[in-house]
Every structure is written in C-alpha cells, then in structure tokens.
Amino acid sequence: MDTTRLIIVAVGGQGNLLSSKVLGEAALLSNTPVRMSEIHGMAQRGGVVESAIVFGDAKSTIISDGKADVFVGFEPSETLRALNRCNSDTVVISNLAPLPLFTVAIGKGVYPDIEAARELIRKKTARLIAFDGIALAKEAGNPMSLNMVLLGALIQTGKIPVTAENVKETIRTKTKKAFVDINLKAFDLGFAAAKKCG
Amino acid sequence: MHKLLTENPGEKMLLLGNEAIARGAIEAGVAFTSTYPGTPSSEISLNFFQMSQESDLYFEYSTNEKVALEVAAASANCGVRSMCIMKHVGLNVASDALMTLAYIGVKGGMVILTADDPFLFSSQNEQDNRYYGKLSGLPVIEPSSVEEAKEMVPYAFDLSEKLQEPVLFRTTTRINHSTAFVKLGSIKPRVTKGSFKKDPLNYVTVPAVSRKLHVKLLKNIETAKGISEQSEYNFIEGNGNLGIICNGVSYSYVSDAVEGLNIKDKIKILRIGFSNPMPETRIKNFLKECEKVLVVEEGEPVMEEAVKAFAQEAGLCFEIKGKSEALFPRLYEFNPEQVQNNIAKYFGIPHTPAQVPDLSDVPEIPQRPPNLCAGCSHRATYYEIKKVAEKMDTIYPSDIGCYTLGMLPPLSMADFVICMGGSVGTSCGFSQVTDQKVISFIGDSTFFHSGISGLINAVFNNHNFTLVILDNGITAMTGHQPNPGVDMGNLKLEGYGRVSIENIVRATGVKHITMIKPYKVKKSIEAIKEALSYKGVSVIISEEMCTLYAKNLRLLKPRSFVITDKCKDHKNCVNELACPAFYIEEKRVKIDEDMCVGCAVCAQICPENAIMPLKKG
Ligand code: SF4
Questions:
Q1: pLDDT (tens digit, 9 = 90+) per residue, B342-365?
Q2: CATH number of the domain where residue B570 is located
Q3: Residue B172: which CATH number?
Q4: Are residues B396 and B414 in the same domain?
Q5: Average pLDDT over every residue of B409-428
Q6: Do B249 and A63 touch (CB under 8 A)?
Q7: pTM of the model
Q8: Which of A41, A42, A103, B572 is most buried, judged by most C-beta within 10 A?
Q9: Domain of B263?
C-alpha cells in the first residue's frame, strides 16, 4: 500500500496527541497500517509538539524535511515555522487563531502577520485550508475540541486512508464520554469548513 | 483493568513503544520492577506503577538508578524475574552496581532497560550506552520497532536466565516514543516470591572471589556469543553484493531506503538486534559475500569498529564505511531521507533527493521555547533570590528538573549544570576557588537522588554557599512521579513512608536552615536576605506544590488575576517574571484568564498595585 506521510504540529496543551491517537485507532478499524512518533518531552511547558504519522507499509516512524504529504498546524506561526517539512505537493491545514509567543511579549521579535503567512504557505504548497479553528471549536462547545475540528478538515481532504465513519466511531469509543458529542460536532464543523475552503 | 494486563492473545492494540515494552515484560512474567524516572523511559515505569496497583506485580520508584538496580539485582538473585528501567544517563549512576553485578550474575531473569536519547530531546548528553555492554560484558539487545520491542523483552528474560546474567535492553527515543499496532501474546504467570540461598564464595565480591567470578564472566561472554551467532534477531535480508549492517531504528530507515531506491536485488542487509557480543562468524561470512559495506548506526561507531576488525581478521580489504564527514555523523538522530541519500551516494545509485521548498522569503519567527508553567513556584523563588542577590557577583550552579528552564532570560538563574545532584558538589568547588557568592538550586527529587552526599561533603569540608532546595512535592519534569518526600495520600495510596527534607538537612549538620513559602514575596525576600548573608553552608527550602500537579490533582481553587486601569505600563511583571500567562494586546499587558492560576506573585511586585483578583460573574 502507498505511503502517506502526515505531520501534525501544535503547541503543548493544544490536545494534538489526542488527534493522533484517534487517527491511529481509526486506522486500526480501517485495517490501514500506521506508525507514529511523537516528541512531547516539554509539551506541558508550552513548547512545540510534533507528531509524525505514517500510513502504509513504510517502517520508519519519522518524516524527513520536505516529505510531508499532508500537514496539520494547530497554530498559524507554528505552521509557518514548519514549512520546511512540506513540499510543493503538500496539502496544508491550519488553524488561524494565534497563540501569543511569549518571546514577543518580552520584546524579542514580532509575531508574523497572518495574512502574509497565509500567502506564503499557499504559494509554496499545493493547497492550503485555513480557518479560525478555535471559533469552530467554541461553536462545538469547547475550545479544547480544536483537535477534532482539525481532524474533520483533515479527513475531508481525502488524503488520509481512513474514513470519516471510522474516525467518528473512534471518537465515540475512545474519547472521554462527557466530550463525545462536542467532539463529534467539532469534527463535522471542521469537515464542513474544509469543504467550503474548496 | 489496565489495558496491558489484557489476556487476549492475538488481539491487536495500538501501543506506544514504552507500553509495548511494559507489555513484553508482563508477557514474560516479570514480577518485580524498579526505576528512577527519566525521559524517554518514563512511560514504561508509569504503566508498571499503574499495573502494580491492581495486580501482584511489584513496582517501586527508587531514590535513584543505582538503588533501583540494587533492589532489582537482589530480587533477581532470589529467582524472581525482575526489570529495572532508566534513561541512558541513569545507567552512569547505576554503573557501580552494574559492573560487579555482571560478575555475580542473577538467578531469575533480569532485564535492565536503558533508554538512549539521540538528539537530546530531553537529556543533558547523547551518550551511546551500547558501550556499557562492552564495559560490563553483558549482552545487549536492541529493537528496531515497537512490535519488535515487545517481542524482544521476553527473549531478553529467557536469555538472562540461560546465561544467568542481567541483559541490557537498549532503546532510543524513537522506539520509546513511537506508536504502532502490536499483537498481544499470552501472559506467563508471575512468580512473585523467591528465596535466597547463601553462597558467599559466589556472592561476596572480595578479591579472591571476584578473581574467579571474572573468569566465569568471560566464559559467559563466550556462551553469549554463541547465542548471538544463532539469534533470530541478527538476520540477513535481500541479496546482492553491496552490504549494509545496521541496528535499531536505522534498520527501518535502511529498509525504507532500499525499497524507495528500488535496489533490493543489489543490497544485502544484516540487521543486528543482539549487539553484544557481536555475532563474529555471522558478520565475517556476510562480509565475504560483499564488495562494499556501509554501516548505519546512530551514535558512536560501535559496530563499525568491530566490523572493520572482523574484516581485517578475515583478510578482506574492500571499503567499509559508516561514520565520516561525507556520510553519517556521530551526532544526533538519523532520518529516513538522510539514510536514503547516503546509501545512494555511497553505492552510486541514481536518486533525486527530496525537494525542500525555498524558504528564503519566510520572515524570521520568534522562538517558542518551553517555559516554566504559569504560576510555577520556581519562578517566584527565582525572582526573590534574584532581587536579593541583585548587587552580588553570583554563581548559580543548578541541577536537573523543570527548574533548569530558569536558565532562559529574563530569569537567567542557571550557570552550570552537569548531572543529577551536581549543583551541590560543584557549589563546593566554586565557593572554594572564587570570591563570588554561590547560590545553587536543586529540586526535591534530585536532592533525594544524589544531592544529599554533596551536602554532607559541604558541611564536613566547611564550604561557603547557599543551597536552595526547590521542594514542589513531586518529580515534575518527567511527568509527576512520586519521590520519598511526596505525600502519597494525595494519590490515595497507602503503605508508603515519607521522608522530610528539612530533617535530612538538619541531620547533615547544616546550621542555617530557612523555610520559605515562595508565593509570599516580601516575607521570602526577608528570609532569603538573611540566609545569603550567612557564612558557611546555608540551606533554603522553598516549599510550594508544583502548580501543574496541583491542577491535575484538582487542588487548585480556580482564581485568576487581571490588570486594572491603574497599570502605568512599567511591564515589571512581564519583564521580570516572564510568566506565560502574560500577553501584550494593543501595547498593554494582559493576563490570560485560562492560564493564570492565581499565585498572585505578579500582584505583589507591581509598583502600582494594578493587578487584582478577577471578580467572576
Ligand atoms: S510542571 Fe510544575 S515544576 Fe514544572 S514548570 Fe510546571 S509548575 Fe513548574
């Protein structure tokens, strides 16, 4: 089976580990081979967390620079920072709601302009699906459901060999009971948002 | 029931490498486990800890890796299958026990897991612990994938029992922290009790005994070599006369590269999974069928040197390469593309490397370094010490924990860090040879781990410095594991003792001891002033529970602060505390309500009294 390489980048605390877990479990339901690797040493201390998810028959669990087929960024400046992971064929999905950089607060540098970032990413990759994921997560009932919003958008692209139904089934069985409804709604909102982005 | 205790052979589970390793041990019937937590190994222990609460598996967080190894060594010498888990640098601490345990050996199977961290994702060095196999004479097993890690743990236990020696199980971060589907096997029943048979002539390592034991160890190494020659974990794949010898995660990258370059008919791979002792005859035979060989291994050229020596003995003189400027570095971790490019280059295979987009027009993005959590008590202590020591010429030796993050500006409160407990020992030397004021920092867990002996040294040799023990009641950095000072009642666990840091410090003979509550800024500053002016060894114990831990335990009352109109924009709060809850909006300082935990430290330092509790509702 062909290999699909997905990178997810987030800031510690944004809940990206759950999205990779859901994807992995959904792949198990779909009988799709999957391997992932995560670096989360300082995740809870506000650092950047990166997950690599490789679908298909490859043995490696990490993804080299320029080799992501699909890229999901939980935060716009982090999406921009990780552009070296992408190539001109990469499909990029990014939340546009920024998380302030503390270095900026103490006067070291400026937060990148979001419109300019969007333009840059669009220019250098095959397709950019970008929207305010936090607004949608809040609409679903909890800003922490950003991970499910982005999962919805990811599945809508059709780039990942996992079906929407299997992801939803995993959300139903593997995420916290109290959040299942919110998570499902967030997934649908993200899915619809990606569709609208065309 | 804990998922790793599932009795359902054949079931496929999505497991983290560390879970797979723990499961492998459970399947092997491990009954006794001990550790000192350390990334990237910590989740193995966490799973044992959880399982021990609902089964007869024994697990303990020991005070340090040496103790953990001794505890497990005794258990294994009573015939109980035992496992000891640590990160790579932990084995340095345990190495004293390790080296002579290799002479004595074990009765029940004993596996020592050492998790190396190429690229230093969360470590102070990237040493290659395969050398410990050579140094001690113990067998080394190295998995290449998550699934294989699970399979290899029971193999390692059987091997240990066959050889009557502990076995080193060496992983790297990309095994520990990768996830894959793993097929469960059946669980061997645990034998939790053993018995010790006196045999001083084999157990008491006085010189006369050890001289004989060393002979026995060398014999064991020969036996191990025979097993390594036959091991299914040293296997050959493909056919062709270009050879690649690899181990660990490098094997995955090599496999993918051979597939990607479509050169299966040209390349023969020898994967080494039982890497000490090396399967000498196997390697020689492999070499004889090759014209050119590439050795792919992260870290040091351990296999490369051995392979070159074997080639020399076999009278082969074709090209064998691995580490070199043009090929593989001794630094950091490898990645699939790098391995593919090097294979193509070395063997002259046509290939276009991956295209990385031109990013020259992307603006520079400010860094997002990890930071102490909002409300972390370390920040408060650092701020207070810094205030008091403002005019002093200081040296801040520090240690290993979350508080090492205090090295970053604006706190800049770490000047010298080498190893666990090193803050105290180095303070002795710094204070002896300089006239600078030495103020060192150590966490509670690190103090128990190896700070105490340094402190005793300081008292005995009459050194002159202030040690600040940052007691936040948990081993925070590695994910909130208990240590001897922790109130286990918070975890609703019974049957534990509790050791008071203050009593230990007192018992070492320190004359000047100060207790502070770091959230009380004024009071703490007063107390710190006095402690810093003391000549001799003074100790400040700064006590406040780790905020993140308190949050997880739901011990934090939700309370948040806001910046009111009284703010005159001095920005002392942001610039001196660097709490991540601050952000700037339209040039004004704001507090992120969701992040703020209400420690009120900023409210106490604001010259305008502009920071007030947020009235909800
Ligand atoms: S985990 Fe605890 S000790 Fe570590 S930075 Fe956060 S609050 Fe501080």
A1: 999 999 999 988 888 888 999 999
A2: 3.30.70.20
A3: 3.40.50.970
A4: yes
A5: 96
A6: no
A7: 0.96
A8: A41
A9: 234-347
B502 and B602 part of one domain: no
Please tell me if the CB atom of residue B577 comes closer than 6 angstroms to any atom of ligand 1: no
Q: Would the CB of B402 count as within 6 Å of ligand 1?
A: yes
Question: The domain that contains A158 carries what CATH number?
Answer: 3.40.920.10
Check residue B616 and give its pLDDT. Answer: 65
Q: Are residues B202 and B256 in the same domain?
A: no
Q: What is the DSSP letter of B276?
A: E
Q: In which element (H, E) is residue B393 found?
A: none
Which residue of chain A is at minimal alpha-carbon distance from B145? Answer: A59
Amino acid symbol at B163: L
SS3 B347: helix
ipTM: 0.95
Domain residues for the domain of A184 are 4-196
Residues B180 and B90 in one domain: yes
Closest residue of chain A to B183, computed from CA coordinates? A28
Q: Counting Cβ atoms within 10 Å, is residue B522 exposed (0-12), middle (13-18) or buried (19+)?
A: exposed
Residue B507 pLDDT more than 90? Answer: yes
> Of B79, B86, B56, B82, which Cα lies nearest the Cα of B71?
B82
Q: Where are the alpha helices (DSSP H) in B461-598?
A: 501-508, 521-533, 547-552, 572
Q: Do B267 and B201 fall into the same domain?
A: no
Question: Tens digits of per-residue pLDDT, B252-278?
Answer: 999 999 999 999 999 999 999 999 999
Over residues B137-145, the mean pLDDT reads 98
Domain count, chain B: 4
Residues B1-5 have a mean pLDDT of 96
Is 80 exceeded by the pLDDT of residue B366? yes
